[in-house]
Amino acid sequence: MTLLKRLLASLVLAVCMLPVYAQPNGKVIEEQTVKSTIMGRDVRYTIYLPADYETSNRTYPVVYLLHGYTDDHTGWLQFGEINRYADKAIADGTIPPMIIVMPNGDSSFYINSYDGKEKYEDFFIKEFMPSIEKSYRIKAQKRYRGVAGLSMGGYGTLIYALKYPDLFAAAAPFSAAVLNDADIEGMSADGWKNTFGQLYGRDLTGKARLGKAWYDNAILKIVETKTADELKKVRYWIDCGDDDFLTKGNCLLHIALTEKRVPHEYRVRDGGHTWTYWRTGITDALQFIGTSFHQ
Hints:
Number of strands: 8
Strand order of the largest sheet: 1-2-4-3-5-6-7-8
Largest sheet: 8 strands, mixed
Structural class: alpha/beta
Strand content: 15-25%
Number of helices: 12
Mean pLDDT: 94
Shape: globular
Distance between the termini: 59 Å
Oligomer: single chain
CATH class: Alpha Beta
């Protein structure tokens, strides 16, 4: 063996003997509960804690990540693999270390029902967030708090950001369930009964559906009635696929914000109402929210 070959062989051996450092992984607690007086029951949630949570004394920003209709608090973990994407993004420096909280919203659309029997919105704002932010080392300030979600959770994201702009720095709705008056008025009886009647009023048909309960929670109406200065209090990242059945409502939201000259990010990528679409977009959304946590 020539001297050059021996040197190369020694170099390869030395490289192979270098220690391999695994990417640090955050901690996931899949089944936790908050006792709710407002809801009259315990509400489950899943939480992601960044890798250095248990080895440091620092406090962290927080993102509340809301699931879609028919899913539960484990959806973003089971199908969205949020822990894997967050681990990589934090390790890469794409997002700052953050706590991600995923509450169980059942089929509430994260609002109070018209009849007062289900007061999820009150629970979330008055009980859930305060409880979480006392139980974990969270920076409990607007500038360090974000909200995101998909479909029903995208709707909830918009509701909370629009109604409580002093609580959230940024919002990232995916494939949000944004409907207009014509969608509600023309909805089939079965569609209304199975999904929206419990929220806005049972046994309603046609224009009768367009009552106070609807308008108090209609995304486009809320945007219409708020001033541009009010809307600018929250940074928005809106993302909906070009093949998604909810793309029209998201387009209308984009237009409504544009007409009021409210800065926002609007993304239309190739894809539909699928976990593949949401998984491949979550890192960009968290990065957008994460920039709100910086000076």
